[in-house]
Structure formats: structure tokens, C-alpha cells
Amino acid sequence: MHDVWKVYPNGVEALRGIDVRIDYGEFVYIVGPSGAGKSSFIKLMYREEKPTHGVVLINGVNVKRVRDWKIPHVRRKIGVVFQDFKLLPHMTAFENVAFAMEAIEMPRRKIKPRVEEVLELVGLSDRMHALPSQLSGGEQQRVAIARAIVNNPSFIIADEPTGNLDPENSWDIMYLLEEINQRGTTIVMATHNKEIVNTMRQRVIAIEQGVIVRDELGGEYGYED
Amino acid sequence: MKIETLFRHMREAYRGVKRNTWMSFAAISAVAVTLFIFGIFLIFAFNVRYMVAELNKQLVIRASLEESITNQGQEELLKQVRGISGVKTAKLVPKEEGLRRFKADWGDDDAEKLFEGFDKDNPLPDVIEIEPQNPDTIKQIEEKVKGLRGVAETTSGDQVTDKLVSLSSFTRNIVLVFGLGLAVLAAFLISNTIKLTIIARKREIEIQRLVGASNWFIRWPFFIEGAFIGIVGAIVPTVIVLTLYQVAYTTLGAGEASSVLKMMPLLSLGTYVALSIFALGAAIGTTGSLISVRRFLRV
């Protein structure tokens, strides 16, 4: 990102001149108080929002200039994980993950083996025919992660992935993300979890009032909450 | 689009219809009523065209000749008539032949008795019957024939067609305005049904967008759902309209050679009408989805 500004129609300046570069294979925490601009930062990365000013390059593609019909192709290189999982309640774990492959028109014969493979990776082989309502929060988030990685994205954006989970499940999710990172996938994770950031040391980018105030490798969380 | 994807979209569309049973039913009914009126209009329009064509086939100019004209004069006149551009055939019908036809048209055994006296003193004139190459030029030809020396008067049978054409265009305008209003209503109902489906599938669409589904992948099921409603709505009116037509056709004896009323046979008409109704149904349906997809589906 180069000199990125995000100003909403109501005049709120969510981001003010962000300059940052995240390389392939990195694991980055985005931290900062609520309303600091973390969400806007994340949304720019998966092209949910366009920058008001400045350049956002994702895999070398300028997301502001890219034509609307090409955006889906940009998004296929990105996996997104949310705090509230965003699973489809009427579909089983298997179907939820397969749904992401069907959406990009993968042939059926490729879907089944690949879905089974990622569900095994996230440790849910024996729960693949359960509905989300039959799964614990941690399991649901693992299904969401399986869905995010099933199409082999080059990076994953996780918006408070542990926000709705108890500490034990949170750690499970973090180990899983770490494993995915070690396989070469870039991970950008917005979080409020001090313990995780301070224990699992990675690059930390702190945003306050729309500006990056700190960017350090192996940094600390740095806030009290 | 891959076949597999197409089937997927069709399944999705069917789920949409089933999910909003009552709205779908209302939309299908509105389409059905619209298409029923459209079907009646279509049958009417096709038949008017057919009747006009049939009548045109029978169109001839009859030029009555002056009594004083000699046989040689008649031959001369016939040549002149044949020389007029646009004349397909011209033949002389002597008054004896005219009387014979007159009696035959009467078709009664009593006719012989009734017109007995006429054999001796035939009141009919000799006539030249002229068939135009193109029915549209009949007036011009008639004018020219009227101007020829030896022609007493001319008649042509195009007044009926004139009336038929003007009546049909009047009716057509009324039906079109009415039908258009109904089509808009039907499209609106369909767009509402599609809107409900879009709302129901909001989360699915959100995820499809996130994982990079193409815009058309997301839109297709809604268009198919709209077209499906339109096509299902076309079935009932097609059946009713064509059945009614068949009943009318047989009751009026329109197929018989002697009938004055010339109606198109069901087979040739049915294909046109059914195809048109189904095409219009699908068009109304996809228009309805288009409205909702454009307004409510952010992709």
C-alpha cells in the first residue's frame, strides 16, 4: 500500500496515508484500539472497499484500477476468515467447503478429494457431515479456515478469527494458522488478543487513528485491553 | 458455461421458486393472465392476416361492358386490358356464362324456373374479369380500366378487406396497450419474487463473492428463476387458447371449403402461437429478474 487514504462518504477518515509492504510468506498481526482503522485496512485488502486515494497492490494488481469483472479473479487469490465464521447453516462442513470450489466452477471430480484433504488438514475428517449447529465454535472456525484455503489462495486475511472463541479453541486456531503459514501462505490477521500476539511472536503493525504508529518484527501487542 | 454449472444454476433457481411458493404462484398467475390475453390477440392478428390474404386471392376487378360493343370490339378491349401493367389475367365472361354462374350460385332447383325468362332476354352484361398480380395495385388498375372506351362500369371487392384491416388495427392497439400494462405488472411481480430469493440467499451470495465467484455465476440462477416463472406461466394460457381455438374452428366450420370465414388451421397457427407465448413468457421473466438483480444484487 502506498499513501493510502480511506475517507467514507460521512467524512470519517478511517485511514490516513498508510504506507506498508507485506511480502509473500509473512505472518502479520494488525493491532490497535477499536475504530482505529483495522477493519478498513483489512477490507481494502480483499477489495471490499476501494481506497479514496493512494495505491493498493495485491499480487501486483492495482485494486483500484482493476475492472469490476476481474475482481473475482483477484479474490480467488485471497482467503478470508471472519470472527463470526460466516458458514451456511443448512450445509454440512463438507458442503460449506465445497461451496467455495463450486463458486469458482471447479469440476466436481476435483472437489471431493480436495475438500477431504483440507478438512483433514484442519482436523475435521470425522466431522465433515455435521451441520454448523452441531459443531463447537472452534470447529466452526476450522471449517471457515478450510473454506478459505481450499482454493489455494496466496494469502489469508483473518479478521479477529479468535474473537468468538474460548482460549483453548483460540490456541488451536492459531496453531492451525501457523501451520498454514509455514506451508507458504501469507497471513494477515487483525486481532485484539494480547496473549496470542505476545506469545506467538510475529510482525506487528499497530494502527491508531488511521495511521501506522508501529511496525516491528516479533513485536508486542502493546495495549492493555 | 459448463453443463455441470448450468445444472447447478437450474437447481438453485428451482430452490428459489420453491422457497417463495406463494409469491412464485402469484407471479406465475400474473404471467398466465398476460399471456392469455396476448395469445387471444395473436390468434386474432394471425387470422386477420390470413383472411386478408385469402380474400386478396379472390380479388378481381369486374368490368361490365357496354351493350353496344361488338365482338370485335370486345376482343380489342381484352387486348388493351391485358396490356395494362400489373394485370395478371383478364378473361371475357359472356353474359350466357354469367347467367349460368348466377344460377349455380343460387344453387336451387327452383332457379331454373325462376330465371327461365332470362334465357331469352338476358339482362346481364358481358364482363371482363381482371386478376391483379398484386392486390395492392387493384385500385390503380381499376381506374385505368374504367377509362377504356366500351367499359360501362367496374367493381372490385376490396371494400371488405379495407374494413377488416382497419378494424384489426384498432383492436390491435387496444389489446397492445392493455397487454403492455399487464406485462409490466407481471414483470414487477416476478422482480419481487426474485428480490425475496436474493434476500434469502444473501449470505450465500456474500460468500460466493468473497471466494471469487464471477458476477455471472452469481446472477445466472436469478435469471433462470425468472425465466422459469415466465415459462411455467406460459403453459396454461397456451393450452387454453389453442383448445378454445380448436373448438371455435370446428364449431364455425371454418375449415370447410364452402365457409365464408377463413381461419388458419390449428397446426400451423398453433406452432406460431405457442412459440410466441413461450418466448414472451421467458422475456417477461428475465426482465423481472433483471430489475431485481440490478437493484438488489451487489456483485
From TrEMBL, chain A:
<keyword id="KW-0813">Transport</keyword>
<comment type="subunit">
    <text>Homodimer. Forms a membrane-associated complex with FtsX.</text>
</comment>
<protein>
    <recommendedName>
        <fullName>Cell division ATP-binding protein FtsE</fullName>
    </recommendedName>
</protein>
<keyword id="KW-0131">Cell cycle</keyword>
<dbReference type="InterPro" id="IPR003593">
    <property type="entry name" value="AAA+_ATPase"/>
</dbReference>
<comment type="function">
    <text>Part of the ABC transporter FtsEX involved in cellular division.</text>
</comment>
<dbReference type="Pfam" id="PF00005">
    <property type="entry name" value="ABC_tran"/>
</dbReference>
<feature type="domain" description="ABC transporter">
    <location>
        <begin position="1"/>
        <end position="224"/>
    </location>
</feature>
<keyword id="KW-0547">Nucleotide-binding</keyword>
<keyword id="KW-0132">Cell division</keyword>
<dbReference type="GO" id="GO:0005886">
    <property type="term" value="C:plasma membrane"/>
</dbReference>
<dbReference type="GO" id="GO:0022857">
    <property type="term" value="F:transmembrane transporter activity"/>
</dbReference>
<dbReference type="InterPro" id="IPR005286">
    <property type="entry name" value="Cell_div_FtsE"/>
</dbReference>
<keyword id="KW-0472">Membrane</keyword>
<dbReference type="GO" id="GO:0016887">
    <property type="term" value="F:ATP hydrolysis activity"/>
</dbReference>
<keyword id="KW-1003">Cell membrane</keyword>
<dbReference type="InterPro" id="IPR027417">
    <property type="entry name" value="P-loop_NTPase"/>
</dbReference>
<dbReference type="GO" id="GO:0051301">
    <property type="term" value="P:cell division"/>
</dbReference>
<keyword id="KW-0067">ATP-binding</keyword>
<dbReference type="InterPro" id="IPR017871">
    <property type="entry name" value="ABC_transporter-like_CS"/>
</dbReference>
<dbReference type="InterPro" id="IPR003439">
    <property type="entry name" value="ABC_transporter-like_ATP-bd"/>
</dbReference>
<dbReference type="GO" id="GO:0005524">
    <property type="term" value="F:ATP binding"/>
</dbReference>
TrEMBL record, chain B:
<comment type="function">
    <text>Part of the ABC transporter FtsEX involved in asymmetric cellular division facilitating the initiation of sporulation.</text>
</comment>
<keyword id="KW-1133">Transmembrane helix</keyword>
<dbReference type="InterPro" id="IPR004513">
    <property type="entry name" value="FtsX"/>
</dbReference>
<dbReference type="InterPro" id="IPR003838">
    <property type="entry name" value="ABC3_permease_C"/>
</dbReference>
<dbReference type="InterPro" id="IPR040690">
    <property type="entry name" value="FtsX_ECD"/>
</dbReference>
<dbReference type="InterPro" id="IPR058204">
    <property type="entry name" value="FtsX_firmicutes-type"/>
</dbReference>
<keyword id="KW-0132">Cell division</keyword>
<dbReference type="Pfam" id="PF02687">
    <property type="entry name" value="FtsX"/>
</dbReference>
<keyword id="KW-0131">Cell cycle</keyword>
<protein>
    <recommendedName>
        <fullName>Cell division protein FtsX</fullName>
    </recommendedName>
</protein>
<dbReference type="GO" id="GO:0051301">
    <property type="term" value="P:cell division"/>
</dbReference>
<keyword id="KW-0472">Membrane</keyword>
<feature type="domain" description="ABC3 transporter permease C-terminal">
    <location>
        <begin position="177"/>
        <end position="298"/>
    </location>
</feature>
<feature type="transmembrane region" description="Helical">
    <location>
        <begin position="174"/>
        <end position="199"/>
    </location>
</feature>
<feature type="transmembrane region" description="Helical">
    <location>
        <begin position="21"/>
        <end position="46"/>
    </location>
</feature>
<feature type="transmembrane region" description="Helical">
    <location>
        <begin position="269"/>
        <end position="293"/>
    </location>
</feature>
<feature type="transmembrane region" description="Helical">
    <location>
        <begin position="220"/>
        <end position="249"/>
    </location>
</feature>
<keyword id="KW-1003">Cell membrane</keyword>
<feature type="domain" description="FtsX extracellular">
    <location>
        <begin position="61"/>
        <end position="153"/>
    </location>
</feature>
<keyword id="KW-0812">Transmembrane</keyword>
<comment type="similarity">
    <text>Belongs to the ABC-4 integral membrane protein family. FtsX subfamily.</text>
</comment>
<dbReference type="Pfam" id="PF18075">
    <property type="entry name" value="FtsX_ECD"/>
</dbReference>
